[in-house]
Amino acid sequence: MKSNGRLNQSDRPAYGTIKGNIQIFRNKYGNDDVLSFCCIKVNLWDSDDQWVTEECTDDNGDFAFVGLALKAYTVVFPESIDYQKQKFVSESSGFRHQFKVELSPEKTLVDNVDIRYSLSQTGLIEGYPTGADAQSMLGINA
Question: Is 2 inside a domain boundary?
Fold first, then answer.
């Protein structure tokens, strides 16, 4: 059977899959101190801001949304994860925890929707101005 290199409409995939992983970097015991947690909820919203479904991570921090219609989605991770009385936030710029994903006939699998959490780098710092006035200054380290 010869093929002209094009898929017929009936040969095109109708459904897609989104896969990813959540990891927590504690750096308590060095740079390779990585935790993976089971049962962290990841939500999926469509392009009309309608909730589609949620999945939970497995023991390795992996999740998958399977059998999705081919269209645009937003994967929404928790804003933060509390572990041992510490708050871990997304390492992405601006603490981004939402990712846009597009499934199409040409791209039915998106398997790199990964997020890393680390300890928040915010804190209160007290300093003193260099002038003659000895009033304290407060600043936030973000």
Answer: no
